[in-house]
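Record 1 of the preview.
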Amino acid sequence: MVLPIVAYGDPVLKRRAAPVDLADPALPALVENLFETMYNAKGVGLAAPQVGLSVRLFVVDGSPFAEDAENAAQEEVIKAFKRAFFNPEVLEESGELWGFEEGCLSIPDVHETVHRKPVVRFKHQLLDGSWEEMQLDGLAARIFQHEYDHIEGVLFTDRLSALRKRLLQGRLGTIAKGLIQVGYRMKFPQAR
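->
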């Protein structure tokens, strides 16, 4: 089922999410709905808070970014980078900051260069409750970090300079008021 995506300005996007209950019988359907909603909106990641659920869960499918990979090996990694992450915890980010243009389904038509470290090491739970440790780099790391920020209550616009934030305030206000047209279902925090 395609769910409405929560727009910029909704308090759920600024709240640190609670752990997701892996024993919840509705969890597989929620994961399926997140993927369906993400694909409907032509995204590469979607976090539960973006559909109004403040839990530590997000889904990713990096395959649309395969052509942006730096080399053939990274292209194969990003093509295969499709999964759900339950209760992830970042352990370490490393490397020199690099800029890449990011956007967000909750902040339509706003794209800005965000600087992040290129390597992330983290752990996350599997559906059986066990923990798995992983390391990602390049575009896969960036997609993970962007979605991880969502469950921490951080938006990519929070990572911009004060000047860039001020320059975007009008556009962000327009989004919060629902005065935009997008090709997918959205839920706006303020009435039109």
